[in-house]
Amino acid sequence: MQGNRKNLASVFLLLLWFVFVSCQAIRTTYDVTEETVKATYKVAKFTAKSAYGAGSLIYHVGGFTFKVVAAPLSWPLTRQEIETIDGLPPKEAIRQKKVKKSPYVVKGRRYVPMSVEQARHYRETGIASWYGYETYRQKGGRMTANGEAFDPSGLSAAHKYLPLPTFVKVTNLENRRSIILRVNDRGPFVDGRIIDLSSGAAHKLGFYNKGTAKVRVETISAEG
Fold it and tell me: Percent of the chain having pLDDT more than 90?
């Protein structure tokens, strides 16, 4: 009888441990605060001609300029490891405009972006890296995960969970520099990193040569 009680106690403790570990494993990987972003940035939007045949949009947000151009569907994605978006081939999801907060799959792992409401309260501190150098030596352009033409020297970023597009304020905590970026791509798919910046953004934040930096990322309220 005593031995049975010990066995039952051991099984109970094992179950508690399993539940604890499981809860830790499914814990969200991004931070959503309860307070909204206090600063509101005015957005000025203009239409301009594009070299790719369609018009482009020019945004002015908080003193920064963003040129948004739809990429031709023939262009390859910057993140060719994306297998599906909303259960569709990536290009088809982009064509159908089913990208903004749709789940997507990379190397067999399913990522579920946060809602627009959650994104309004997003703030997180972690490691930023940058990407885009590889595109300079390739012929033709590259397409972001929401169908925009990727400009390595521009002010854009990739995030695994924010709706596309979203404007964020990124602060390099090592030198206190801050800029506003347009999140229009997915990534980085490297453990321990929360955001991937264009090389142009990394230059402005002062960590291009270093490769990574500890940053604070927070969504901003942008109104037209």
Answer: 67
Q: Which segments of 70-162 are extended strands (E)? A: 82-85, 104-106, 109-111, 123-131, 156-158
Q: How far apart are CA 213 and CA 178, in angstroms?
A: 12
- Domains of the chain by range and CATH? 72-223 (2.40.40.10)
Residue with tokens 């799959």, as numbered in its chain: 105
Q: What is the pLDDT of residue 4?
A: 53
Distance separating alpha carbons of residues 211 and 176, to the nearest angstrom: 17
Instruction: Express each pLDDT in 132-161 by its tens digit.
Output: 876 656 667 899 999 999 999 999 999 999
How far apart are alpha carbons 122 and 190 in whole angstroms?
20
pTM of the predicted protein model: 0.81
Alpha helices, H only, the chain: 2-25, 90-95, 116-119, 133-136, 199-205
Burial of 32 by CB count in 10 Å (0-12 exposed, 13-18 middle, 19+ buried)?
A: middle
User: Using CA atoms, how far apart are residues 72 and 54, in angstroms rounded to an integer?
Assistant: 9
